[in-house]
Design a protein that fits this description.
about 450 residues; mainly alpha; about 65% helix
């Protein structure tokens, strides 16, 4: 999957390499909980973090030499109708703990017994079995019924799973209702989802409050230490979306997220240092931040670090290192990575010249919407670089890049229209595109316009 680009400025790159930007994580990738094991671990971690529950506090401390409850006793209690014992026995089958063969059918049966007694944890675990087809035939509709029962009894993970199910089905009102339940319980992922949904509301009229609500949900999650929300809230301050534009606040949230080892935050601090956005322009600091983020595996930072090595911005120029980082970014589907790697192959910088590979990587970036890649793929098609010449395809790519206000693409498109190359000759439209290119600063367009009759 290609990384989506956003509005963060970066350094100039290789020869024809244009300006790119860091990607923003697309919406929110909150995933449902589909394992009773995962839930048990999270609950145990929460108990350890938050201390004993009120109910636990009322129980006597277990002596260190107290005997453990035997499996036989758990089974006996489960068969007598104890919901908690039924869940415990179900988990033993579900996980295949020592002395138990993993048996999803048995697990689902015990979870259902607990669920039918009104036990919310049993309802949630049985819903997971139905959702995933573990021990029972998969049945999403029935799974949702049990998620809802568990959610309305306060199981936060069930609230999230129910909300996600409703979101997928298009019932956003119910999705919001269950996300709000989870958010009230402190689930920061639900807060981020509510921000995403609020941000998608159309602008105008009362819906102008959507951006403000989105920012407020993000603030709630950010204040709870959610690094994803901290980065998203920083974006709001950068763009003035739902909050007044404020670069100082933007940076405050980025610093917090970077302190939580969030690689996107590190990359964005790098872009601020590179461009002077809210910070003094500092290429060395930019390269440092790109490096930290890149080594953490963040593809846009890998492409940005490659640009630093390609141009010697903030680091010693090293074209081989640039190619290495472009490759890492491209391997993750990053558009700047593909484009930078393609241009490296085209120019033979940091690697052996390979025009076929150049065209392949530039095409991948172009097809993902990279403006400079669209223009350069047009050049490759027009000139037969790395493959057969195809003037008609060249014009197609020039048109796509021109639609994104590329001065070079507007010039190339205007020239082709005037010459009738790859397209029916249309001097009037060609002149129009040349004038647009000239307004955007194209010296080639100004020169050609002077020479036209």
């Amino acid at each position: 999957m290609m990384h989506r680009r956003c509005g963060w400025a970066v350094l100039a790159g290789l020869a024809l390499l244009g300006a790119g930007c860091a990607s923003t994580r697309q919406d929110d990738d909150l995933k449902p909980t589909h394992s009773v094991s995962d839930l048990a671990r999270r609950q145990a971690a929460a108990r350890e973090r938050d201390g004993k529950s009120e109910a636990d506090a009322k129980k006597p401390e277990r002596k260190s030499d107290a005997p453990a409850v035997s499996v036989e006793h758990i089974r006996e209690m489960a068969e007598e109708g104890s919901g908690s014992a039924q869940i415990m026995l179900g988990r033993m089958y579900f996980e295949g703990v020592e002395g138990f063969d993993k048996d999803y059918k048995q697990a689902a049966a015990w979870f259902r017994k607990a669920a039918e007694q009104g036990n919310p944890q049993g309802a949630f675990n049985y819903a997971i079995c139905l959702d995933e087809g573990l021990g029972v035939p998969a049945n999403g509709a029935e799974a949702l019924t049990w998620y809802v029962k568990a959610a309305e009894r306060g199981v936060v993970e069930a609230q999230v799973n129910a909300a996600l199910s409703y979101e997928v089905s298009g019932d956003l009102d119910e999705a919001k209702r269950f996300f709000e339940m989870a958010a009230v319980a402190g689930h920061t992922g639900a807060m981020r989802k509510l921000a995403t949904l609020a941000g998608k509301e159309p602008a105008g009229g009362e819906s102008d409050d959507g951006a403000k609500r989105a920012a407020e949900y993000l603030r709630q999650a950010a204040q709870r230490g959610d690094a994803r929300a901290q980065v998203a809230l920083a974006d709001c301050y950068r763009e003035g979306r739902g909050v007044p534009q404020n670069y100082k606040e933007m940076l405050n949230w980025l610093w917090l997220a970077a302190g939580n080892s969030d690689p996107e935050a590190m990359a964005k601090i790098g872009f601020c240092s590179a461009s002077g956005l809210g910070l003094k322009r500092d290429p060395v600091a930019a390269a440092k931040w790109f490096g930290e983020s890149a080594r953490a595996g963040y593809a846009p930072a890998q492409a940005a670090l490659a640009n630093c090595y390609a141009t010697g911005a903030g680091v010693a120029k090293d074209e081989a290192a640039a190619v290495s980082w472009f490759k890492r970014a491209a391997d993750q589907g990053d558009t700047d990575g593909h484009f930078g790697l393609g241009m490296s192959y085209a120019l033979g910088r940091g690697t052996e010249k390979d025009e076929a590979l150049a065209r392949e990587h530039v095409r991948q970036a172009a097809e993902a919407g990279h403006t400079e890649a669209m223009y350069n793929l047009g050049v490759f098609c027009e000139e037969g670089v790395g493959g057969p010449a195809d003037a008609a395809e060249a014009v197609t790519w020039y048109q796509r890049a021109a639609a994104k206000h590329s001065a070079r693409a507007l010039f190339a498109l205007g020239r082709c229209l005037i010459e009738g190359k790859g397209v029916a000759a249309d001097p009037a439209t060609g002149r129009f595109h040349l004038e647009q290119a000239a307004e955007l600063g194209s010296a080639d367009a100004r020169d050609l316009l002077r020479r036209l009759p």
